[in-house]
Amino acid sequence: MNTPLITPDGFPRSDIDVAQVRITRTRIIRLRNDLKSVMSRIETALYEHHAHLRERGSVSAIGLAGDVERKPEPNGIAFAVVNTVVQRSPAHEAGLIKGDKIVKFGSVHAGNHQKLARLATVVQENENSPIEITVIRDIDEAQARAEVNLILTPRQGWGGRGMLGCHILPL
């Protein structure tokens, strides 16, 4: 879009079709302007729609910040398992151990983890902030299990890779 169409001497370049390039550039500029106009109208319509929903008191609508309608949390359903925990890491300090099955990781649960992508997002968004975690832990060989609540604070610079210091696999 910004490449000159003339030579340093002021003559049209012979290696390109100057007329076609000018026509194409004009089309691109029009399309960009059309896109801006359409996006502006969509934004205005969305604000009006959400204002109308707020007036009606509809709670299940998509929020202005883009939060998707909340799905109910499946109680006690694990979606990931802790594969390894590094000594003196944030995960180790929080009390996570190998074999813990993660039921809830902040706002992430079995119904919304999206192949653990949401878990990574929660970790990135909560660096140096505590995250509540609920895990199911095998207590003994008799298959007894306990639901354990932990607080994990992801952070950089703890002496190892990542912000957690553990490896989590999907179930």
Structural class: alpha+beta
Proportion of strand residues? 15-25%
CATH topology of the largest domain: Pdz3 Domain
What integer value in Å does the Rg equal?
Answer: 27 Å
Order of helices and strands: HEHEEHEEE
Instruction: Give the overall shape, derived from the CA principal axes.
Output: elongated
Domain count: the total is 2
Protein name: Probable 26S proteasome regulatory subunit p27
Domain PDZ: 81-137
Keywords: Chaperone
GO cellular component, one term: cytosol
Structure, explained:
By secondary structure, the protein is an alpha+beta fold. The protein has two domains: 1-68, no CATH class; 80-170, Roll (Pdz3 Domain), CATH 2.30.42. 31% of the residues lie in helices and 20% in strands. Strands 1, 2, 3, 4, 5 and 6 form a six-stranded antiparallel β-sheet that branches. It is elongated and about 85 Å long.
What are the main properties of this structure?
171 residues, alpha+beta, Pdz3 Domain, 2 domains, six-stranded antiparallel sheet, 3 helices
